[in-house]
Amino acid sequence: MKKDIHFISRFNTDNVGDRWSSPYHFFDFDGFNKKTIHWINKKEYTSEDDHFATIIGGGLFGPGNIRPIIESQPNSKFIYWGGGWPRVVGYDTRYLNLQIRKFNLNFPFSQMPFGIRDYCEHLEFVPCASCMLPQLDKKYSIKRDVGVYYHSGYTKRDWYNKDTDIKYLPHDKMHNHCDINDAIKFIGESETIITSSYHGAYWGLLLGKNVEIGDPLKNRPTPPKTDTLKLDITLEEARRLNTKFYDKVMNYLT
Predict the structure, then answer these.
(1) What counts of helices (H) and strands (E) characterise the chain?
(2) Calculated CA dihedral for residues 135, 152, 201, 24, nearest 10 degrees
(3) Average per-residue pLDDT for the chain
(4) Max intra-chain CA distance, the chain
(5) pLDDT band at residue 89, thresholds of 50, 70 and 90?
(6) How much of the chain is in helix, strand and coil states, percent to nearest 5?
(7) Are 127 and 117 in contact (CB under 8 A)?
(8) What is the predicted pLDDT for the residue at 230?
(9) Each residue of 169-220: pLDDT tens digit?
(10) Contacts of 198 (CB under 8 A, 6+ apart)
(11) Phi and psi at residue 109, in whole multiples of 5°?
(12) How many of the other CB atoms lie within 10 Å of CB of 146?
């Protein structure tokens, strides 16, 4: 009988980047049954039965999210695949490294595959699995010099500042609550992308675009969430790193 692999990701979000970040969409995990979990939710995840393995990845998942999940299934094998570490843990990459190493002392992360999409020293860099999207292989004709791809979620926050929001720039624009085909097509047809979205920047780099990070949070003492994105990442490298990590995960599971 095939064993189940559970996947925890933000499958049911309006944010198209988070929706397509899980390796669930792109890898076969041959020999296992793939089971989705739609949110980082302990009540939805737990059961009386032990789960054989659980892959957490896509979006931002830090200690506050992961801790109760691991505690609820102490006998399960866990994998952290290409997740982003929340900025509440640390905005400086050195502090980020310290916090994750400190967190690892409490859980068996030293044995489990642990790949993070933030580019930091001393941690395995595994960029978002959405690099496997076939839309990124298409050739797009340039239809605009500049396109603005903005994170619409910022407008719902109490610290939102209209005066610094890039969505008011005088260019064609799209927000990240959209269809994946439309998002990649818009970025592909733009010579330059100005974005406040991690995935807007990431996909822009994978498509070879000029990418400018637009920060709607200029009045806050924190950088945008794209500050640890590897700015020279290529489509080939991103896919190679994800395929390599997949092999590591399969070895770990078998």
Answers:
(1) 7, 10
(2) -50
(3) 81
(4) 58
(5) very low
(6) 35, 20, 45
(7) yes
(8) 85
(9) 889 999 999 999 999 999 999 999 998 888 999 999 999 999 988 765 444 4
(10) 17, 84, 128, 225, 226, 229
(11) -70, -20
(12) 16
Which residue from 73, 186, 210 is spatially nearest to 135, judged by alpha carbons?
A: 186
Nearest by Cα to 176 from 193, 196, 157 = 196
Q: What is the mean pLDDT of residues 98-121?
A: 65
Q: How many C-beta neighbours within 10 Å does residue 168 have?
A: 13
User: Structure tokens of 181?
Assistant: 């085909």
CA–CA gap between residue 102 and residue 183 (Å, rounded): 37
Rounded to 5 degrees, what are φ and ψ at 8?
A: -110, 120
Using the Cα atoms of residue 184, residue 132, residue 19 and residue 196 in order, give the sign of their dihedral.
Answer: negative
Positive or negative: CA dihedral 138, 235, 193, 128 = positive
The answer to whether the CB of 7 falls within 8 A of the CB of 22 is yes
Closest CA to 187 of 164, 170, 169, 208: 208
User: CA 83 to CA 154: how far, in whole Å?
Assistant: 20
Q: Hey, what amino acid is at 220? A: R
Average pLDDT score over residue span 87-114: 55
Name the pairing type of β-strands 32-37 and 53-56.
Answer: unpaired
Query: Where would I find the beta strands (DSSP E) of the chain?
Result: 3-8, 32-37, 53-56, 77-83, 114-116, 124-125, 144-150, 172-175, 190-195, 210-213
In this model, does residue 33 exceed pLDDT 50?
Answer: yes
